[in-house]
Automatic annotation (TrEMBL):
This is RlpA-like protein double-psi beta-barrel domain-containing protein. Residues 241-262 are annotated as: Disordered. Keywords: Signal. Pfam families: DPBB_1. It comes from the Bacteria. InterPro entries: Expansin_CBD_sf, Expansin_CellWall, Expansin_EXLX1-like, RlpA-like_DPBB, RlpA-like_sf. Coiled coil: none annotated.
Amino acid sequence: MEGIPRHAKRRSRRRIGLAGAAVLAVAVAVPVTWTAACADTENGRAYFYDPVTGPGNCSLPASGRLFVSVAAGEYAGSAACGGYLDVTGPRGTVRVQVVDQCTKCRKGDLDLSRPAFSKIAEPEQGVARVVYDRVRNPEVARPLAFRVKAGSSIYWLAVQVLDHGNPLRTVRIRDGAHWRDLRRGGDNYWVFEHSPGEGPFTIKVTDVFGQHATASGVDLAPGRVQRTTKRLYGESAVTPVTQHALPAPPTPIPPPRSPMFC
């Protein structure tokens, strides 16, 4: 479902709205350390918006209030969904969860929720220069959960992974003695199209850093969030909120001097 956000001082852009699902967004502005989160620092611009009602591309909610939509290149067909960014602006740093795609954003543009933007810049500005990192091993309050998509059956299955922290690389399902890869969908569900059966299912989740967890007993119960006790990483591996210095603003080029005539 598409909606038109009300961006401060920039009303011409359109983006896709936010979803509703039971995921807690873990986001804090302090404390701050000066260590690298994911060694992948980007410079860009941040705006903010008030989300419209309805599902967004990631099929994730804005329940934690501190969230972000990213440009299509970074969204990468839902590969960014559920991951986190540390965003530093003139006022400070905030950690936000990627919950949607901003279809009109350019590379480096971030569309923050209004509460998140207010932690890094004055909302009256409407736009702010930022530096941001993709976070490795963010703190996540709850262990992994799974949600089977409506319409799933013994012949076709789509499942969403919740509270994974890092972006995911693969999701696999046990099929007898073999593991079968699920296909990533643009809506942040993983699809198995080869008659999965009645379940319950055993699912193996691997993130982009190679960390993995295997959960058993996932039922064919569309729409229900099924919480597990599994996590992709332990508390000792969690990365604190990371701040980087903003680059100096570009030096304005003086206009050419007019020729002098006598």
